[in-house]
Amino acid sequence: MGVYVILSKLTDDGAKTLQKNPERVKEVNDELERMGVRVIQQYVVFGEYDFVNIVEAENNIDVMKAMVELASRGTIRTITLPAVEVDEFLSSLKS
Asked: Per-domain residue ranges for the chain?
C-alpha cells in the first residue's frame, strides 16, 4: 500500500456546500474508500490549504482517478504527494 499526502483547497462552491452540510466531509471519505483510497488521518488547517489528508491506496492510478473525480465536481482542488516512511527511505540508501 502506498501512502499519499493530499493538500486540499475548497472552491467557493465547496465552502458553501460544507457550510450547508458539514457531514459532507465524512461522506466524501466514504466515497474515497469505495474508490480504493482510505483516509488514515485528516486535518483542517489554516493558510493556503483547507485540509491535509493522509491516505493509503494500492497504487498511483487509484489515487489519480479519485482526485479527478473530486476535481470534476468543482468543489475542491488538490495537490497529491506520494510519501515514503523515513526508515524505508534510509534503508534504501544503504542498499
From this structure: 2-94
- What CA–CA distance (Å, rounded) separates 11 from 64? 19
What sign does the CA torsion over 38, 30, 16, 71 have? Answer: positive
* Per-residue model confidence as pLDDT tens digits over 17-49: 999 999 999 999 999 999 999 999 999 999 999
pLDDT per position as a tens digit, 44-73: 999 999 999 999 999 999 999 999 999 999
Strands 51-57 and 76-83: unpaired
**For residues 32, 26, 74 and 59, what is the CA-based torsion angle, rounded to 10 degrees?**
-20
pLDDT band for position 85 (50/70/90)?
A: very high
2-94: CATH class: alpha beta
